[in-house]
Amino acid sequence: QQQVKQSPQSLIVQKGGISIINCAYENTAFDYFPWYQQFPGKGPALLIAIRPDVSEKKEGRFTISFNKSAKQFSLHIMDSQPGDSATYFCAATRSNDYKLSFGAGTTVTVRA
Amino acid sequence: ETGVTQTPRHLVMGMTNKKSLKCEQHLGHNAMYWYKQSAKKPLELMFVYSLEERVENNSVPSRFSPECPNSSHLFLHLHTLQPEDSALYLCASSQEGAFSPLHFGNGTRLTVT
Asked: Which residues in chain B are closer than 8 Å to A100, comparing Cβ atoms?
């Protein structure tokens, strides 16, 4: 059973546009929601993370929005650049757990 | 060398072969992980070692056998694999404690013929 559902599977955006990736989870015990970015030929790397005590977190052009009541969170990439072209994975876990539940990933392509 | 290093980068093996994947971390972390990555599927956690003890075994078939001789090294021993085991195998490490991020290696691309 997939605990974190991610959409869309892929998206194409023009340079300067906004990329939006959505994730939904079922387990209300989850209290840590990281996003990982993976470039071709590389392993995933932590991009940004949020805890449910805040509704939004921003780091540069990347923003996580969190809706606890809807059990949803999303990643917004503002002013998308060709260098942002990568696969993005959302994830969720409990803070005292080793196990991260990952979404299936979204491949973002930014066209120049 | 920094970060998490995995060798080999690519591996092709027959169903009757025995091979091993190696992972080494230079970050001083005390937890290490094996993940399986298949196309268009979530990363699947296979094994977790904390302080060199296995703390998670995610219902992985016995044809995959992990080994963690010390906190810096992790191996995945493979034998009599199936074609459906073809995937990218990722090693990761982290520090014990809440909210500690995973640091991944670049993976071993395994093809079982």
From this structure: 43, 45, 102
Shortest CA gap A81–chain B (Å): 23
CA distance A65 to B33: 29
Identify the CA nearest to B76 among candidates B26, B35, B113, B31. B35
| pLDDT at position B1 | 53
A-B C-beta contacts closer than 8 Å: 56
A14-28 residue pLDDT tens: 999 999 999 999 999
B75 CA to centre of own chain:
7
Contact A98 B50 (CB under 8 A): yes
Stretch B25-47: mean pLDDT, rounded?
Answer: 94
The model's confidence at residue B21, banded by pLDDT at 50, 70 and 90, is very high
So what's the pLDDT on residue A48? 96
DSSP track, B8-48: -SEEEE-TT-EEEEEEEE-S--SEEEEEEE-TTS--EEEEE
Indicate the burial class of B63 (C-beta count within 10 angstroms; 0-12, 13-18, 19 or more): middle
**Closest residue in A to B58 (Cα–Cα):** A99
Q: Which residue of A has its CA nearest to B94?
A: A98
